Amino acid sequence: MSKGHRIEEVPELPLVVEDKVEGYKKTKEAVLLLKKLKAWNDIKKVYASQRMRAGKGKMRNRRRIQRRGPCIIYNEDNGIIKAFRNIPGITLLNVSKLNILKLAPGGHVGRFCIWTESAFRKLDELYGTWRKAASLKSNYNLPMHKMLNTDLSRILKSPEIQRALRAPRKKIHRRVLKKNPLKNLRIMLKLNP
Questions:
Q1: Phi, psi (deg, nearest 5) at residue 31
Q2: Architecture of domain 1-53+61-154
Q3: Domain Large ribosomal subunit protein uL4 C-terminal: where (predicted)?
């Protein structure tokens, strides 16, 4: 579920980098980091996809379009925005202001996200875990699963469930066509006592 991102060589997912990345101020450093993380293939895909928009949007200041690249989620901006903003396709998000439209563009889940370590740790404080509530939000708990085992077909085929069910009714009841007794003499005679 990578939504078309080039992540074959990425060492691990979710990709978490150390906090000194938040202090990067130069694009040169950001490019070097992406190349070390093997995420530059995704940026090359963005460069290759830059093209002119089809249709009337060209006249409405929306001439150029391109694919989406990785989303970088940080905790504190110590220059990270200036380092990454000139690389095409990259979106920068603060962990306390996550936007579902940026995390799942077009309603499709699976955007390639690069997290800083402090941002990844802050998720538990923001949203809590299934064991404890969120500390930065008031009265917020993560939604719990209704089913412990979601393999519904295996549950329905299990012998315990099959024993409790009645046998399937195989007999076919075909509807008999109702004939008009005023037009059909045989049916009229059957009706008459």
A1: -65, -40
A2: 3-Layer(aba) Sandwich (3.40)
A3: 138-193
